[in-house]
Design a protein that fits this description.
This protein is an alpha+beta fold. The chain contains 6 helices and 15 strands. The structure holds uracil (URA). The site of uracil (URA) has 8 residues, from helix 5.
Length: 235
Amino acid sequence: MMRLDKYLVAMQAGSRSEVKDLCKKGLVTVNGAVCKQSDIKIDEYKDEVALRGVLLTYEKYRYYMLHKPAGVVTATKDNHDKTVLDLLSGVNTKDLSPAGRLDKDTEGLLLITSDGELIHNLLSPKKHVDKTYYVKTRDMVKEEHLKQLEKGVDIGEDSLTLPARAKLLSEKELLLTICEGKFHQVKRMLQAVDNEVLYLKRMSFGSLTLDENLAPGEFRPLTDREIDKLKNGEK
Ligand code: URA
């Protein structure tokens, strides 16, 4: 149960005072009956609330896919740089956080959500969620380097990186799938085979794949199917 005004604010109908006004004006109905009092309690899952005749559906959490461009930081606030949340224009970003982190110069798929439990599960080292990156390198990637990357390389941690999948696309381009998320991991893995990452883009994160229709800087809400797959841990 929650207060009608709080519900309407959560549904982005307006501020506390605006939604109070909407109710007073008789623009809000609960189960078909005009409700002028904004402080009544409603059942957000069962009661049918409509604003100006349009039914609202309550979503506990919000989920967005952002095509992160280079030059913005994966943070909720920053004193110098634009953040990934700044890109979600028109969205109330109050409870939103990015699931994990991409470097400032990395592009690609970033999940941004208010579902803290999902973030926790996706980032848990025990869950081994796959992340696929498109990588452009300074030097040619040889077959032996691919094998090393796949087997595990020394990036200065206590143990080698976990087995990965590497697929060469051209002499200096590869797709690398890793199931960990160590700081600068892909860059450090390429350094470990005497190479350097010149460009990095995340193509997928667990079951979620970057939507080709999103240009860098664009975002969209996840579909119900995408949310279900992520929650069910589908690959
Ligand atoms: N690995 C990196 O080195 N950087 C990223 O942004 C993501 C993975």
